[in-house]
Predict the 3D structure of the following.
Amino acid sequence: MLSRILRVCVVAALFCARPVHAGVPAPASPRLSADVPAQSLAAALTLFGETTGFSVSWPPGTDDLHSPGARSGLTPQEALEALLRGTGLGFEFLNERTVKIIYTRTLSEARGEPEPPPTPDLPPIQEVTITTTRWDRQVTQLPIDMVVWNYDAMVASGVKGIADIGALTPGVAFDFFSSVGSGVYTDIIIRGVTDRHGSATGIFFDDIPLPAARSNTFGRALPPYFDLERVEVLRGPQGTLLGADTQGGAVRFVPNQPSVRTFSGLAHAEWATTARGNPSYEAGAATGGPLVKGVLGYRFSAWYRSDGGYVDRVDPFTGATVDANSNRVTSESLRGALTYAYTSSLTITPSISYVSTRAHDSPSFFTYLSDPSAGDLNNGSLRAQPFSDTYYVGSIRLIGNVRVGELDSRTSYYHRDGDLVVDDTESVKWGGWGNPLGLAYPVTYSNAVTTYTALRQSVFSQEVRLTSPDSDSRSSWTAGVSYYRTRDSERYRVVAEKIPANNNLPLDAANSTGTVQTQFAGYGQVSHRISEHFTLSTGLRVEHEEYDSAQVVNPIRASASETLVAPKFSLDYETGNRNLFYFLAAKGYAPAGVDAALPTCFENLSAYPTDTVWGYELGAKFGLFGGRAHLDTAVFDARWNNGPGVTTNCLVTHIPGTAVSKGFEVKPMAPLGRLEARLEVSYIDAHYTETVSANGRVIVKNGDALGTPPLVASPWNVLTSLEQTVALGGGVNATIQAEDAFHSHNAGPFYTGIPQPPTFVPNFYAPKLGSDPSINVLNLRATINVRAANLLPALCRCATDNAERLDVWIFLNNALDSQPTLLKRNKGADVSNLFYATTFRPRTLGLAGTWRF
């Protein structure tokens, strides 16, 4: 089977189908705000409708056709011409917001098949219609620098979650502290905007915020990629419409919704083998459609994945293997949703989602016990470090048309349980923070120090939005109010049998911190076409924040309240030939709060102040050579003010003072013979802009790189992709793709390099040790997609009209088996020469298939 697939893919690379398109002039409308990747025609038209706000209808029986995709910045007419190239279909605009896909030649001609004899007296054809909410149009309305990953694009690039999206989206990074447990202290960085521990990127699932725990991203709850309609990465501050903790940007996970008109579903399976590691596998299924046609519809999905480990836990004293490939991870999710069309203008959609992730042990290795270049990865921790993270989120959404516009109300409840075990042997009272014993690690298992941490988090939210109706008006607007109430509880317990630095006495200490935070906001945004070429947009959010925190041991309380304002302004200019130039200024913010009591240093809770970011962006989108080539560019400058810092006895949190993150992004696209070429380049210069001292010592210097190693941005990020898709006839398409991601080394300097306690990391900056290197990962993929009825007629005979296609692909991730030493860090500071690090999953070969019906 594999050899047949490979032979077909080789043949596919030798041919190229010449596109054919048809269309009529389009009404004035915003340009396509994001790329529409090459994919099935149905998926491409769906994404076109979502990113432009058009209602799109097309005849059935065309879903097995393939669309070559379209680049961002095109007008609706140009985008449709690109999307329909080679399909034998055209289009016509019925009004300002509705487009209809029509036949210009028969499907048999488009597929290269013989024309079947006519069949008389067939019933009228039912059309498929895709719409999107007006709120989505406001959030993603131009001008904005946005990357959209739909499900087909994620499958094509092997995306399994936010870590892969970060690796494959220039200007976005997803990292974690390698020295803390199972890699759960994570950070998502967009355009270099990051804090000591804090999150500056908002995460939203089905428009419901999934907040970070306290100020950091402890085990950040992240949705799985399965049965998603798309993932949107919004670069730059999003405070006006999306609220707090979006200083650098936001990531929106948009799941598939129930339909009251049509049935659809998918079944997915995958198996892969990793060099020097255990196999990985996954299975998932989703289905949806009308229970009562036109009145009640459902959507249900279930998914399970097991990622095999590739790091061994060993005895640090003998080198013997204790647990081979111990960093295995399992994940699962369930989601159910109903849509009730109460009237033609009001729908009610309740939904509930459950997500669980369990890590068996840490993915980090000890540098002195390992040799990554030889594929030898060993972790010498004295304790296994499992992590369990489970959350569920339920919501009720009402969408209805009222006299003045579209009303969108969502009530939701989110609850999360996270439990983490950390081997703190190296840092907690082992040799003291000055390490007077001069030991790199203990000499017996009885010296082990274990920290148990439990997080409980719940959020109730209510948001009501009103968005202007679709009309020929030159203006559009949205207004809304939101209320959030968050309860966080973090408990820890530190246990040790004997501590040499403490007269070999045992240790058993515990503490807990609870926080209640409320947020109430009102916001609005107005866009107005002030002339034929200029459009002005302004927005404002006013939010009142307050919190109340308390710790149990050594009782301490902290509370604060404030009112924050987040404005937004944009001006875009569209030339006579439809090229677009825009300027954008927006503010993002993170409210004040507290860090929970720290188990490592037995510190009390500590309050931190509000931080704000002003982001400025100048961009342009060009269509070149009659639309055959495109160039999207953006230059940005983000000004960050983190307010006064907080200094504890063992570390510095929330680095104070001002900082700047500036750079540019370029996305050119041009045909290279028979190949579709994609190139994205991002450059980021993020650094502090003042020298700050506290308690007689320098905290940070002017010019130090923004962030705490290893959670820092790469200056240069380049993504290159080559892809060829051709129709082989008989409803069969073949695609070959090569994708290469490059991230450059960040040379600093960093505030952790200032030679003074407690932040100084000895020997970390020695030439042989260094910090993270530049990295390069190459992924290869070959895909065959075919109409399921053609491939499996016996199985599909009962549902031929509904069967879309079967996709089967073979992939080779990390094809060059790159194993750099990444995220290197020791436990705390000024402790020992023991360094933790991680690396890429070794070369992985896999086979996967998805049946869509």
Q: What stands out?
A: The longest helix spans residues 41-52. The chain has ten helices and 48 strands.
